[in-house]
Design goal:
Layout: H1 9-19, H2 24-39, H3 46-55, H4 59-72, H5 77-92, H6 96-113, H7 124-142, H8 146-159, H9 165-177, E1 191-193, E2 208-212, H10 218-234, E3 240-242, H11 259-273, E4 282-284, H12 286-291, E5 299-303, E6 309-314, H13 319-327
Parallel strand pairs: 2-3
Antiparallel strand pairs: 1-4, 2-5, 5-6
C-alpha cells in the first residue's frame, strides 16, 4: 500500500489527535482511520474523518478530531457540518443531552457563517443547519414534547423557505404529524408525464399510493418491481399509484442541465428502469416534494379512500409492509 505522504491538514489533525489519546483502543481506531484516509492518495476532509470514526463507534474520538480542528480554526462551514454529524451520532446512541448540545453548537455556528450570503452558497452549511434542526426536533419528540417539536419545525420551515432545507424540514414535520391528516393536494400546475389523473380530491373512494422518486435514485429503481406487484394486486380494489418526481438541475454524472435536457433524461430513465409501471402518472414538480417532505427518495405515502394519509415512509419499503398497510385500509 502506497501512502500519500503529502498529508492534508486534516490528516495532520488525525495524527495529533491519535498521539494525545490515552486509550490504546482509541489510538488504534484513530490511527486506522488515518491510514485508510491517506491510502486513497487524495486530500480528505474533516467531515470524512469524523464520519469514519463515528462508523467505528468512536464518538469520543470523532469529537476529539473535531475539537483539534476547532483549536486551529474556531469556526468554518465544514466544522459546523462535522458538529452536526456528531449530533446525529449522539442521537443514534440515545444520548439526548449531548445530541442537543452538538446540534445547538452546529446551528449557532452555521447561523453566524451564513450572515451576508445565502445558505446554499456553501455545500457544508445546509448539512450543518439541516441536521441541527432535525436533531433538536427529534430530541424534543424523544422527551415526549411532540407538539413542541412540531411547532419548532414549523417555525424553522418558515425561516428556511426557499432554501434546500424546506423539503427536509417538511419531512420531519410529516414524520411527526402527517399520518391521520388530510393528504396535501398535488400541485395543480405540475407538468405531467404520461397522463394526468384526477385530483386527489376527485380520487376519494380510491386508495392512493404516492411513490416519490428521483432519476438518480438507485433505491427507487429497486422499488419499481415492488410497486408494480402492489399495483397488480390491489388495482382491482381501486388502488391508484402516482409517481411524483422533480427536476434537480443535472443529468448523468452530475452534469449541469437545463430543464428541457433534464426532462428528456427523466423520460429516458423512466422508460429504461420504470418499464414495469409504463402508464403510472408522473407529476413533475418540486412543489409536491416540499409539501410531502420528500427529501428522501423513495418516499411512500398511502392515502385512504377518504383522502387521509395512513402511512408516511421516507425510504425503501418491503412489499409485505405495503400490502399489510393497504389491506388495513377501510
Amino acid at each position: 500500500m502506497k501512502l500519500w505522504w503529502g498529508m492534508p491538514s486534516v490528516a495532520h489533525a488525525l495524527l495529533r489527535a491519535a498521539s494525545s489519546l490515552y486509550s490504546t483502543r482509541s489510538f488504534t481506531r484513530v490511527l486506522f482511520v488515518t491510514l485508510v484516509l491517506l491510502a486513497t492518495a487524495q486530500p480528505t476532509s474533516l467531515v470524512d474523518g469524523v464520519r469514519a470514526l463515528i462508523g467505528q463507534h468512536d464518538l469520543a474520538g470523532a469529537e476529539r478530531l473535531a475539537r483539534a480542528s476547532q483549536a486551529r480554526t474556531p469556526q468554518s462551514p465544514e466544522l459546523a457540518a462535522a458538529l452536526s454529524w456528531l449530533a446525529r451520532a449522539a442521537l443514534e446512541a440515545k444520548k439526548l443531552d449531548q445530541a442537543d448540545a452538538f446540534a445547538a453548537e452546529a446551528a449557532k455556528m452555521a447561523s453566524r457563517l451564513v450572515m451576508g450570503r445565502k445558505l446554499d452558497d456553501d455545500p457544508w452549511l445546509p448539512t450543518a443547519a439541516g441536521a441541527a434542526v432535525e436533531v433538536h426536533a427529534q430530541v424534543l419528540a424523544a422527551r415526549g414534547e411532540r407538539a413542541e417539536a412540531i411547532d419548532y419545525l414549523r417555525g424553522q420551515f418558515k425561516q428556511y423557505a426557499g432554501t434546500s432545507l424546506a423539503e427536509r424540514i417538511r419531512k420531519n414535520i410529516n414524520l411527526l404529524g402527517l399520518e391521520g391528516k388530510p393528504a396535501p393536494e398535488l400541485d395543480p400546475g405540475a407538468e405531467w408525464l404520461v397522463s394526468k389523473p384526477r385530483s386527489l380530491a376527485a380520487l376519494r373512494g380510491h386508495p392512493v399510493l404516492l411513490f416519490f422518486w428521483a432519476h438518480w435514485c438507485g433505491d427507487c429503481k429497486a422499488e419499481v418491481a415492488i410497486v408494480a406487484d402492489i399495483r397488480r394486486t390491489f388495482s382491482p380494489q381501486g388502488l391508484v399509484v402516482i409517481g411524483p418526481t422533480r427536476l434537480y438541475g443535472y443529468v448523468a454524472g452530475g452534469e449541469d442541465a437545463p430543464a428541457a435536457k433534464e426532462k428528456r433524461y427523466i423520460e429516458e430513465i423512466r422508460r429504461t428502469y420504470y418499464a414495469a409501471l409504463p402508464d403510472m402518472p408522473v407529476p413533475l414538480s418540486s412543489t409536491n416534494f416540499v409539501a410531502y417532505g420528500a427529501s428522501t427518495t423513495p418516499t411512500m405515502v398511502l392515502i385512504d379512500r377518504a383522502g387521509v394519509v395512513r402511512y408516511y415512509h421516507p425510504g425503501a419499503v418491503s412489499e409485505a409492509e405495503l400490502s399489510t398497510r393497504i389491506r388495513a385500509l377501510r
